[in-house]
Task: inverse folding
C-alpha cells in the first residue's frame, strides 16, 4: 500500500444544490490496493461524492485525479474508460435479460472488433466472443451466480442482484470500484461472502471505495474510514481509531451509542 502516489486523489471538492452544501471542501485519497469506506448519516453527502467522482455531477470547486491524471472535466464514459466503475444504491440491471446476458452486454462495450468482423463471422470476432463468454462465466462463478446464468436478472434475490451488479461493474476492468451500500438487503452469509470477494479483487489490484451503513461490514473490510457529516469530513483513520472517535459516535450514532460488530 502506498500513500505517496494514491490511485484516487480528491482535493477540496465542493458541490451545492439550491443553497445546500452537499459536499463541502472535501479532500481524501484512495491508495493503491486498499479499501476506503465513507460513512455518515443520511444526507451527509456520500452519494454526491460518488456522483462527482464518476462524473455524473460537475463539482462547483475542487479537482479529482486518477493515477495522477486530472479527470475533473471528464464525461462519465471517459471516467469509466480510464478505470472508474460503480454500483448504485438502487440496483440497475437489465431485468428482462438473463444473468449471463447482463454481463455479456457490459463486456460488449469493450468492442475490439469491427461490424464487418461481426457480419462476416470472422475468426477475430468469434475468438473475442469466446473469450468474453469465458470471462463472464469466471466472474459469475466467483460470486456464486454461475448456476443462475440462464435465469432472468429480475428473478434473482436482492442479494444476488447486488452481486450481479458488482460483476457488471468489474466486467469493465476497473482500477477502482465505487460501491454504494453493497450489502444492503444481504443476509449474514451473503455479507461474509461479499467481504471475502472484495478482499480477493483487492489482492488482484482493484481498489475499492465504498459507502455503507452496516458498521460491522465497514469495520471488517476497510483499511481506512472517512466520516462525513453535512458534507464535511469530521474524521478519518483506521476502523479502530474511528470507532473510538467521540464526534463520530455523536454525529453518526447518537449520544451514548457504541459501534458494534454485526
Ligand atoms: N440532484 C440533487 N438535487 C438536489 N439536492 C440533492 C441532489 N443530490 C443530493 N442532494 C442533496 O444533497 C444532500 C446530500 O445527499 P446525498 O444523497 O449525497 O447524501 P447521502 O450521504 O448519500 O445520504 P444517504 O445515506 O441517505 O444515501 C442532501 O441534502 C440531498 O437532498
Result:
Amino acid at each position: 500500500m502506498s500513500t505517496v502516489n494514491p490511485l484516487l486523489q480528491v482535493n477540496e471538492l465542493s458541490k451545492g444544490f439550491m443553497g445546500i452544501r452537499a459536499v463541502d471542501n472535501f479532500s481524501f485519497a484512495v491508495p493503491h490496493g486498499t479499501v476506503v469506506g465513507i460513512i455518515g448519516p443520511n444526507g451527509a453527502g456520500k452519494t454526491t461524492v460518488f456522483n462527482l467522482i464518476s462524473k455524473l455531477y460537475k463539482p462547483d470547486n475542487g479537482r479529482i485525479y486518477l493515477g495522477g491524471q486530472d479527470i475533473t472535466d471528464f464525461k462519465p464514459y471517459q471516467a469509466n474508460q480510464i478505470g472508474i466503475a460503480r454500483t448504485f444504491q438502487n440496483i440497475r440491471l437489465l431485468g428482462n435479460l438473463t444473468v449471463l446476458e447482463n454481463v455479456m452486454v457490459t463486456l460488449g462495450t469493450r468492442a475490439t472488433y469491427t461490424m464487418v468482423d461481426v457480419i462476416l463471422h470472422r475468426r477475430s470476432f468469434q475468438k473475442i466472443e469466446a473469450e468474453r463468454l469465458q470471462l463472464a462465466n469466471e466472474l459469475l462463478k466467483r460470486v456464486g451466480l454461475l448456476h443462475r446464468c440462464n435465469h432472468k436478472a429480475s428473478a434473482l434475490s436482492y442479494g444476488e442482484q447486488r452481486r450481479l451488479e458488482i460483476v457488471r461493474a468489474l466486467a469493465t476492468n476497473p482500477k477502482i470500484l465505487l460501491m454504494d451500500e453493497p450489502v444492503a438487503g444481504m443476509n449474514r452469509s451473503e455479507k461474509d461472502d461479499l467481504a471475502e470477494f472484495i478482499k480477493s479483487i483487492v489482492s488482484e489490484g482493484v481498489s475499492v471505495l465504498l459507502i455503507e451503513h452496516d458498521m460491522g461490514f465497514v469495520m471488517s473490510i476497510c483499511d481506512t474510514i472517512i466520516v462525513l457529516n453535512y458534507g464535511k469530513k469530521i474524521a478519518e483513520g483506521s476502523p479502530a481509531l474511528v470507532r473510538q472517535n467521540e464526534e463520530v459516535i455523536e454525529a453518526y450514532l447518537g449520544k451514548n451509542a457504541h459501534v458494534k460488530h454485526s
User: Anything to note?
Assistant: The chain is about 40% helix and 25% strand. Residues 256-262 have pLDDT under 50 and may be disordered. The pocket of adenosine-5'-triphosphate is lined by residues 17, 20, 22, 40, 42-48 (CB under 6 Å). The radius of gyration is 19 Å.
